[in-house]
Each structure stands twice: as C-alpha cells, then as structure tokens.
Batch of 2 targets.
Target 1
Amino acid sequence: MTEAGSDDRVAKLTQRFLATRLHSVELCRPLANEDYVPQPIADVSPPKWHLGHTSWFFEAVVLSAHASSHRPFHPQFGFLFNSYYESQGERVMRHKRGDLSRPTVAEILSYREHVNRAIVELISNAPSSEAVALIELGIEHEQQHQELLLTDIKYILAVNPLQPAYLASSNATVDVDSEFAHQAATGQWLSSDGGLVQIGAEIDFSFDNERPRHRTWLEPFALRASLVTQREYLEFIDDGGYKNANLWLSEGWDWANQNNHAPLYWLYSDGQWQQYTLQGVKPVAVDAPITHINFFEAAAFCQWAGWRLPREAEWESLASRFTWGRRWEWTQSAYAPYPGFVPSGGVVAEYNGKFMVNQMVLRGASFATPAGHSRATYRNFFHPQLRWQYTGLRPAKDIA
Ligand SMILES: [Fe+2]
C-alpha cells in the first residue's frame, strides 16, 4: 500500500485488531485453568470456548474467503468452535461446550496466535474493502464475546459453592469497583411529544439488525432520567411483588413460581440481602442500579410501580438526553426486523436475522460492555426469562 493515508489505515486496523484480541485474553487472566472449562447452564459458555470461537470466526468468515494461503490451525476446530452457523456444517451442540476438556488452554492460546498472525498478514497485503469490512465485523463480534466472557465468568464463579471472587479490586482490564457503583434514583422524567421520529443506524459500523434507518410513529411519552435502583426493587420485594399474580405476565408468573423471589445472585443471609459480585459476596448496594433481572421481573416491577417498560423507538429517540451504558435496559419491544431489513450476505447472513423470534430487545450497554462498543442504535436481545447479563430497567409512562 503506497497510497497516501493507506499506511495509516493499515496501522490503525492492525492496532485495533490486536488490542481487541489481547483484551479477551486479559479478561481471562484472573482465572485458574479449571475456571476455563465449566458450562453450568447452556446459556453460559466456558471461557475457553469463547477464546476459541472468536478465533474460529476470523478463520471461517475472513481467512477462508480472503487469504487463500491460510491453513486452518486444526482440522476439527471448526466442529468445536462453530456456534450456530448452519452453512459451516456440523458442530458441538451448544449445551455440550463444557465437555471440551481438550484442547487445553495453552493450545487455545496458540490457536489465537495463529489466527492473529494470519489476520495481521492479510491486513498488510492490501485487502479488499469486503475483507476489511469482515475484519471489522470480526472485531465487533469479539467485543460482543468479551461482554459474554465477563458475564459467563461471573456465573461460573457464582455457582461454585466457594463463590470465589473474580478480582479483589479493579485493574487495567476491568473496573470491578464500578460494577455496583452508586447511582441514586432521581425523580426527573424526560418527556416527548412523540410524532414521527427516525430510528436506526446510518453510521460507519453497525450490525445489520440496526438497519435501515426508518420512520416510526410515537405517541406522547416520558422516560425517567435514572435507572431503577436496587433500593426501589427491594421495596417491590418487600411489598410482596413476587407473590402477587396480578403484577405478572402469565409466562412470568409461571417463572416466578419456579424460581427464587429475588434477582439472580441475591441471597438473604444473616438478616440482610447479599449479592454475589465480581469481588465476591457483598451486602446489596441499595443505591446502585438494579441488575440481573429478567424481562418478566422488569415488567412486574413496572406494573407494581404504575409505570411501563419503554418501547425501543422511545428509548432511541431520547437517548441523547439521559445517561446510559451501565445496564442493558429491557424494553417492551419484541425483537423483529426493521422495515426493509436485509441480512448481511455470505456466512454472516446467519448473524442476527434468524434470531428474530421470541426475544425482547434491550437498549443501551452495560458495565461489561467493552469501551467503544456501544451506540444509541444498538439492539441487544434475549429471551424473556434470562438474567445473567447486566440487565436493568428505565421506567416509561404515557403522557397526555
Ligand atoms: Fe459468536
């Protein structure tokens, strides 16, 4: 590449790629080798699998199509680390990822180095714009898995009867001190007249599910400037919120009758509520935003409080007016294609679109989201019963 500015672009993409790859390894640095393997529930993947899968993604999506001389690190790693791509053939079923005692952590790290060298070489050889776009997608994909790494590690350590801490205090990789940092509720509401608004992405990078930007109609509404706090949620618990069928959606009521009447990781012990955090078990921080609640719990809380969950278009249209990014915020919007949605082509056609059923949209970002991986148009999505992510809620209400 000799064109003016090209060297700079190569350097920036290489630097961003390697920094992202290193961050995944750094997130796992506090773990013992034994922590890399368990899969306590199907939704939680072993850290070792995340490290392998994010490498496989670059091989399957980028290198196979754009680096003809690349030799896969291992002929069976496609089978081990393909997540859900039907076009890429047979794979270890999701709930069997914890069975992978081998390859070892050291072998996975060698795999990562193999892929790193190949991508750096590709970037230095004047890749096509299509290849660059796929490398950028691979980086964003790895960042999504970095969030999952942290939340999955938390679950793996929390269900261990010894409940070991992930980190005793913050370091350069994870600011664990901010996991339950103070954020008292304010009574401030932000109102909107609604009307015709534009939502969706029209920026350099976005996932296909954020596109196209389009018009949608909103009736007058208001969103609260602050998230619901753990103190507010305690009031819901103390008021019998989990025992009042009138507050719950039918599926939610079934769920509530089969689970603990408290957010995930909460435990009532020695006369007080405690919760498992990345720093171990601590008393519930009442002024921190509530987290690890599912859609059913968020909806029941709103019903109890006389509010409702926001629609995703409401959230996006006001996002510049409130602080967000600490908790994924449940919305009442079902995860569905935007008008005119077209999935990305090739292997990544399966990235988002095929999951657009039976899931709810979350907006914002969370404590676990890597820096630079959030934007107001971002659409996260989970099944309504799930709560191992840093999920919370921002109240909404209709106004005249
Ligand atoms: Fe993935």
Note: Residues 129-158 form the longest helix (30 residues).
Target 2
Amino acid sequence: MTAHPNTEPLIRVMALHALAYCERLFFLEEVEEIRVADAAVYEGRAMHVEIEDAEPMEPLELADEEIGLVGKVDALRRRDGTLIAYEHKKGRSAGGEAWESDLLQVAAYALLLERAFPSTVVEGRIRYHADNKLVRVPQTDALRGRVLDAVKHARELRKGIDRPAVTMNERLCIRCSLAPVCLPEEERLVDDPKHEVIRLFPPHRDRLTVHVLNHGTRVGRTGNSFTIRDLEGTKTVYPAAEVGDIVVHGYSQVTTQAITLCAYQEIGVHFVTGAGRYVAGLTPGAGRVQRKLRQYRALTDPVVCLQLAHQLVRARASGQIAFLLRATRGRQERSDDFNLCIQRMRNGLRGIARAESLDALRGHEGQVAKAYFEALPVTYSDDVPPELRHTIRTRRPPKDRFSAMLNYGYGLLYRQVMQAVIAVGLEPACGFYHTPRSAAHPLVLDLMELFRVPLCDVPIIASLNRQRWDPRRDFDVAPARIWLSHDGRRKAVQIFESRLEQTWRHPVVGYSLSYARLIELEARLLEKEWCGKPGVFARYRPR
Ligand code: SF4
C-alpha cells in the first residue's frame, strides 16, 4: 500500500465507493481487510473482460499523496481534448441517474486525473449495462469537495477498532457481498425480537473437507489441484477451488508445494493423531488486529466472561436434558433411576442460573454432565451389543469402545470449530470459560460445548442403534486403551461429515442451515456479544 507523507496509507478510490454504499462495508473491507468475491463480483469482472475484448481499454494507476488518494482508472479515453474516466456497471442506473457511490467513485478518478494533468478538461462517465444508460458526470467544485470530505471521513474511520453500525437501508444488505460476515439481519433481530430475518447467510459449506485417513498417503500438488496418492497407488484429484480444508489423520505427508497452494487459496491443513487428538494446523489469514483487539478487550473482563459462560453452560445442559427426554419419548414408563438423573440435571441447571463465579459454574456443569452420562444408556436400542455400551466415561486414553467413538468424534469437532474460529478471525487461545491448561485452545473448547450433543453424541448413538458398528473390526483393542481401527475411523468421519451436512431450522434466527454453517454462525454471533449487539449467541437448542 502506498504511504501518505504522514505515514497514513492512501485511501483507494474503490474504498470510497464502499464508504458511500455503507460505512460498515468500508470498515470491513478496508480496515479489517475482509473481502468476499460473490457471484455478482465475478459477473462484474467477467463483464469487464468482455468489454476489454471488444474495445481495448487504457488503464492508468494514479496516486496523489497530497489529497491521500490512490486509484486505477480502468478505462481512460480522450475525446476532443477531454480526458474521460469511464466506469462500467453491470446493474441498472438510479432511474437514469448515477448512484451516489458510483458518482463518488468516478468523481474521485476525475479528481486524480485533473491533478495529474492540470491543463486538461476531465469528465467522468458511467455506463449502466442492465438498462443501457450512459450517465455523464462533469467535474464540479461540489463533487471535488465531496471526494475530499469522503477521504477525510475514511481516514477517521480507519483509526478506530469498532465496526460502524449496520446500515438502516436493508435493501443495501441484500446485494452486499459481505452480508454473510456482517450478519446485519441478526443484529436487527437483537434490536427488534419480532424482526423477520431474511437469510443472507449461506445454508451450506461451499467447499469440502478432505480427510486423509490411510497412513503413508502423499498429498501433492498438480497445477491448481491436489493429488492424493495412497500406498496402494490409488490416486484422487481435488481441484483446489473445491477444497475448504485438508485433515491428515495419523502419518501421511503433505508436500511443500501442496502447503503453498493451501496458503494461497486460504485452505486449512490440520493434523490429528490416529486416536483423533488435534495436533496442529496451518491456517492462513490470521485475522486482522481489530477483531483480536476487540476480543482481548472483552475477554479480559471477568464480568463479560462470566456472562458468556452462563449462556454457554446453560445451552449445553439444556441440550443434554432435551436430548435424553426426546430419545425416551413415547416409552411407557421411564425408570426411577432415569427420572432421578433428569432431576439432578434440572437441579444443576438451576444452580447454573445462580452461579456467581466460573468455578461455581464448573461445579454445576460437572453435576449435570455426571447425571447425563449415567442416564445415557437408556438411549441405546435393545440390539446394541454389550461391548459397545458404556459404563463410565473414560477420556485419555479411552478404555471402552463408546469412549473411543466419542473421543474421536470430539477430535473431529475440535478441528471443525477451530476452522470456524479462524474463519471468523478470532483468536483461538483467548477464551472465556475454559482455562489455558493444555495444548488445546480455550476458545475452541468453549464453542465446542454448544455442539458436543448435536454433532457427536446424537449421531454416534443413532449409528449404534442402527448397528453400524462392528465391535471387532472397528476397534483396536490393547490392555490399557481402546482406539478406533482404520475402518472405525473411516466410519466416524462418514458419520460426522454427513451430520455436518444435515440442515435444520434455527429456532432463533428462523432460517435453515447446515450444522457446518451453524458452527460458523455461532462463532460470528459470539463476536457480536462484544461488538455492541449481544443476545443471540448460544440461544439455539439442538434438535
Ligand atoms: S451487509 Fe449491510 S450493513 Fe453490512 S456491510 Fe453490507 S450493506 Fe453494510
């Protein structure tokens, strides 16, 4: 970026276009450096290529340190001694006139041109292709003043760390490529609980997760694709544009060339052990500093941490109770032991509501979790073999098959939540409930609490009840521990990935989305808790 004499970076003309459209869009793009190329952006680029093929354009990059502006005029023409900055727009004009943001953009180009070529007459023109309108924008003092005011305002905004409020004009959001990041509709819901949310958040993942399960596999690169070859020589090719992240289970290798491609295309690479424990990840785009500063500011405040922890623990405990009651619905009679467990969990939930410290919360959460695991066997069908049923929960290392399945599932969930935390630009090491005691990142552990039941417990128990597991073939049994075998890991990944793709209607925001997207949505809603719009995070209850 070109530096201003006062060491301030110059403002891009395109940034002024964003600023005139919506202040928050300017902040997201220029300050937080979040850019999303959606279908409309691609169509716009394609249109420029078509125009250029038909009539070669003369682009010109101009920077003016005195007024603090830089921009590239895509199409510059000279007509009868007048220099004309052309701007092509895919959409319609504003009833034959230019839209405010387009006007500001072309006036900024014209200002740069007249300062670079002082004795030349300069004009801007905007061609709206959808209704075939050409709007001429002669340069005036009023327009020059608007450009300079906009540059000043942009500089002021760039000094802050807080996002400006969402625009009052809801129609702008419908066409905004950053709506899935900004979530304006969800903020309007905070202000007005009766607001009917328009879904601007994508319902499904747009790129896949590639799991490399066979030991000794090599992940290489051929052009813009990944080539995955196992020890038997079986080769699978994935175009990089279709891959969201690569998960390497156990001992396989990823070449430097493949890692470089991942870095360029913002594809995460994650390494997990054969037992499902997360080891490390390479995640590009560390997230801009403003987001982290806001997070540190909030999560170093014990009051904020306690409030968030309350929401989180209540959500998990309510989800556990709801799951047990739903799984036993329709049964003639629930046993006394089961009813007692539910009673203990409800007592724990009341304690959670009253807890005045994180330690007190942990105590009540532990009470609920203990009763939950004691009650869990009632969710098994009669056909589940005894070896697959659990008696007590064992963690590291797992000593029974059920714990081995659960541990592996939680490892997969950890990776998925980590991916979402990074995508949102949060700092995974800075959490509000879990303490930084192990290699695991506290914020990832915090968010996982919302998804353990719907993404691991529910599908694992459903798969047991459908008799998808083989007590011998799917497990690797040693005297001191039980792990999943290669077949078992493959099965766990299939179950987890297919659960991630299942869609359901979020009861609070009111639209449908996949569980994979739900994780990202909750991470974005969490960030809103310390960005002035709290109240929607951790409010959904799992199905
Ligand atoms: S979604 Fe709406 S509020 Fe958010 S940046 Fe875009 S236009 Fe502005």
Note: The pocket of iron/sulfur cluster is lined by residues 22, 24-25, 28, 166-167, 172-173, 176, 178-179, 182, 184 (CB under 6 Å).
